[in-house]
Amino acid sequence: MNRLIEQFHRRLVVSCQAYPGEPMRSPDTMRRVALAAVRGGAAGIRAQGLEDITAIRNAVDVPLIGLWKDGDDEVFITPTLDHAVAVARAGADIVALDGTSRPRPDGLTLAETIAAVHEQTGALVMADCSTLDEGITAANVGADLVSTTLAGYTAYTTKGDGPDLGLVARLAAAVDVPVVAEGRIHTPAYAAEAVQAGAWAVVVGTAITHPTTITGWFASALVEATAADAET
């Protein structure tokens, strides 16, 4: 097992991302969020965008998973080899990229992309998948890790209220590389269940680093409670 990957075995990786146009959308803010996450016990960070990756790499010494969201096509998480190489050179130890069966914008196969990232940068590759077959394929063509990041976010998968722990368990039983649980892990209990299901590590983003969404959860609960009181 790679020593870098061993560092976050059965531990938490925090995804530090903000959407375009939001108040927190700046590399320095994400750097500070990453520092806070590491202080709280995060064993790794996942970050989006070259400037954010570089800023966070200069601030923390835990493993850094980097990606670059770009384009309007279905495949937009580090969609091409050029994106992947740039992410690695910005400071990511692990390049996260779309690991689904959908065509990649540059015409390369997933296998060709992974091999080129390994050869050109020496970085590891995490394939963000949405199904069991995609995860198995990604592992077979050289991905160092596979994740459930895109489960429920492709046209052919169903999005539930919580994480797809069934997919985590099936992948963990089917592949020889570490399986990372990611997607809709909104509570500590879900995170613990993901590890129990076989996840090597757990990535949490929104529930820790996206105050707009978290505030919305609380605000909606109060609105619903007020409406329920009015009906009684």
From TrEMBL:
A Gene Ontology cellular-component term: cytosol
Organism domain of life: Bacteria
GO biological process: carbohydrate metabolic process; N-acetylmannosamine catabolic process; N-acetylneuraminate catabolic process
SUPFAM superfamilies, sorted: Ribulose-phoshate binding barrel (SSF51366)
EC number(s) recorded for this UniProt protein: 5.1.3.9
InterPro entries per the UniProt record, alphabetical: Aldolase_TIM, NanE, RibuloseP-bd_barrel
Functional pathway: Amino-sugar metabolism; N-acetylneuraminate degradation; D-fructose 6-phosphate from N-acetylneuraminate: step 3/5
GO molecular function: N-acylglucosamine-6-phosphate 2-epimerase activity
Keywords per UniProt: Carbohydrate metabolism, Isomerase
Reactions listed under catalytic activity: an N-acyl-D-glucosamine 6-phosphate = an N-acyl-D-mannosamine 6-phosphate
Pfam families per the UniProt record, alphabetical: NanE
Entry function: Converts N-acetylmannosamine-6-phosphate (ManNAc-6-P) to N-acetylglucosamine-6-phosphate (GlcNAc-6-P).
Family per similarity comment: Belongs to the NanE family.
Protein name: Putative N-acetylmannosamine-6-phosphate 2-epimerase
